[in-house]
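User: Hi! I'm working on a homework problem where we have to compare a predicted structure to a textbook description. Could you give me the structure for the chain below?
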Amino acid sequence: MKKILVIDDEPWLREMIRLALEQQGFEVAEATDCITGDAKAREYIPDLILCDVNMMGKADAGYITLTKLRTDATTAAIPFILMTGMADAAGMRHGMELGADDYLPKPFKVEELYATVNARLRKVQTVRAEAEKKLSLLRSQISLMMPHELRTPLNGIITNAEMLAESAATLDARTISEMSREICQSSQRLERLIENFLIYAQMEIVASDPENVASLRTAKAARAAQIAREEATDQAGRAGRTTDLELQLAEDVSPAMADEYVRKIARELVQNAFKFSEAGQPVRVTLAAVNGQIEFSVRDAGRGFSTEQIRRIGAYVQFERKIADEQGLGLGLAIAKKLAELHGGSLAIASGQNGGSTVTVKVPPARTA
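Assistant: Happy to help. Predicted C-alpha cells:
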C-alpha cells in the first residue's frame, strides 16, 4: 500500500484529500504545518507528499518544507507536489527550482487529485524499473565478462611465478628478468581491471542518487592542466612514444570536477589513443575553454571507430577484440563518458573516413566564488 503525507493547515481540505485517497487504496498521514510536516516525513517516509504552499499565514511555508526535505538524504527523493491557490508562473518556477515535482492548483476536483498523484507515482515506478533493468544488465555483463578478463592476467602471473619457483636455479638472468617483467605487467593489468570495475560500479550507484550527483558538480579542479600533462606524459612514456605526444593545455581553466576524476578521464583517453595507434603517429591532447564549456580532447591517427562502434560505447563493450586482442573490460571510454555525464557534460567521438579519431569530453566550468 502506497503511503501519502498531506501537509495543510485547513482541516476540511486535509479530510477531503484523505478520504479521496483512501478510497483509492492509499494510506494517508496528515500534518498541519511545516514543522510537524517535516518531522512526519522523516518518521513516516511516505511514497509521496502533498504540501500547501501557504500555511499559518506564511506564504513560503511549503517552500521551506520542501527545501528542508530535499537537503536530507533520507527524504530527498520523495516525490513532492505543491498545492497552491496562487499558481503563477514565478511561484511555480521557484518551486521547481527548489525540487518540487509537480503543482496542484487550488481549487481542484477529486479527479484532478487522482490524476496528479497517480501520474507522479507512475513516473517514480518507471524510473525505479529502469534503474533495476540497468543493474540487472550490469550484473549479467559482470558475470559473463569478469571470469575471463580476470583469468587472463592471472594466468600470466601464476604461470611465470610457478616457473620461477620451480626452475629459478637453472634459468639465466635474462630469462628471469623477462619472466619477472611479465609478472609485473600482468599484475598491473589486473589492478587496472579491478580499479575500473569498482569505479564503474560506484558510478552506477552514484547516478541513482540525485543528491550525490549534485554534490559531485560542486567540485573544482584548479590543477586540470597539470593533471592532464602528468597523465599524458606518463602514458606516452609507458608506450615508449614520448616524441609522439603533443600538448596544448590552457593553464587557466577549472572544470567542475574533482582532481581524481580529471585524472581518470585523461588516463583512459590518452592510454586508448596510444594503444590504438602506431609508433610515429602523433597523439594530440588539448584542454581549453570553448563556448562556456571546458573541453578536454585527445586526437590520434589510428584505425578510428566505425559509426556502429561509436553508438555502442558502454560498459563491457570492447571493440575489435578478435582483431586487436587487447586486454581489459573495455570500460575506459564508458567510464569517461559516465563521468562526463554525471558532471553535467558529455563525451563525443569524431572518426575520419581514413582513420584517426578525436574523443572530446565537455563539462561545465567550476563555479566562481
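For your comparison, note the following. The first helix runs from residue 11 to 23. The radius of gyration is 27 Å. Good luck with the assignment!
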